[in-house]
Amino acid sequence: MMQAFDYIEVKVPAKPQYVGVARLAISGLASRIGFTYDEIEDLKIAASEAVTNAVQHAYNDENTGEVILGCALYEDRLEIVVTDHGRSFNFEETKKKVGPYQEWNEDSPLREGGLGLYLMETLMDEVKIDHGEGVIVFMTKYLGRERGEGHVKPTVFS
Amino acid sequence: MIKNRETDRGGVMNLQVEQVDKDLVHNFKIIGEIDIYTAPKLKEHLARLEQAEGMEVELDLSEVNYMDSTGLGVFVGFYKEITAHNGKLVIKGLNQRLYRLFEITGLSDIMQIEQVEGGEHDASI
């Protein structure tokens, strides 16, 4: 059975100056569910990384579209979907479509690029990415879960 | 000391960079948020510093209240440029949150970074 959740969608122009707005929205929603200060900071970074990716994607395409930040508030977790499609989507359908996150394979942290994805992966409990038409990032963070719990994945740099 | 608030159609940019040079060490104090919007401005400020052989630079991040990979990217680029000139870069005044970002990305093993004394645990929201 599907769990009950409140769904909030924020749509901003795919421009750098609105990433902070998306971040503030996440901060407010996360504190609404009861995440700790540190968890909220993690969520702010992860969401900003996803929106930043979408903004960069839109810029490369030279079309200034919109980024949608979809947030599903559950009792025990926050699910976030970020897409640069610029149009609304069915949250449940989109969630089914996204596949596992492709491992970021980094030899040296001084090589630029990929850092944003790595941070999302590290700061959230689950991250999935779909490169279809546009990019969809789907991520989840559970309430009161130790970082890395449920993850057996070793740290890239350790 | 350079102090300016950048504005454009998007409104006030929440980032300030102040340069306070002491002796031979170039010292920058960065204030505000570092994200995709403000990172280019930060990069531009740092790029204005003429690279000299063996130069020392300190970046004070004690008043940076938000940073993500875009900020890390700027610091990595700056670090590479300074070390290419046999210089030294110290990033100081990191609170626990910022320190952790350098730590989980492995950058703390490579760059010289300093945490705030006593490490004020959490700032207020």
Biggest interface reads: A-B, 30 and 28 residues
User: How many extended strands of chain B?
Assistant: 7
Strand order of the largest sheet of chain B: 3-4-5-6-7
Order of helices and strands of chain A: EHHEEHHEE
How far the N terminus sits from the C terminus of chain B, by CA atoms, comes to 29 Å
Shape annotation of chain A: globular
User: C-alpha Rg of chain B, in Å?
Assistant: 14 Å
**Spatial strand order of the main sheet of chain A:** 1-2-3-5-4
Q: Main β-sheet of chain A: number of strands, strand sense, barrel status?
A: 5 strands, antiparallel
Taking all Cα atoms into account, the compactness measure Rg of chain A is: 15 Å
Task: Describe what you observe in this structure.
The complex is a heterodimer of chains A (158) and B (125). By secondary structure, chain A is α+β, with helices and mostly antiparallel strands. Chain A has a single domain (6-142), classed as Histidine kinase-like ATPase, C-terminal domain (Heat Shock Protein 90). In chain A, 35% of the residues lie in helices and 25% in strands. Chain A has helices at residues 19-33, 37-60, 91-97, 115-123; strands spanning 6-13, 66-73, 77-83, 126-132, 134-142. The relative contact order of chain A is 0.18. Chain B has 125 residues and is α/β, with parallel strands linked by helices. Chain B has a domain at 39-52 and 71-86. Chain B is built from three helices and seven strands. Chain B has helices at residues 39-47, 69-84, 96-104, and strands at 7-8, 11-12, 15-19, 25-34, 56-67, 88-94, 112-115. Chain B has a five-stranded mixed sheet, covered by helices on one side. Chain B has a two-stranded antiparallel ribbon with strand order 1-2. The N and C termini of chain B lie far apart (29 Å). At the A-B interface, α1, α2 and α4 of A face α2 and α3 of B.
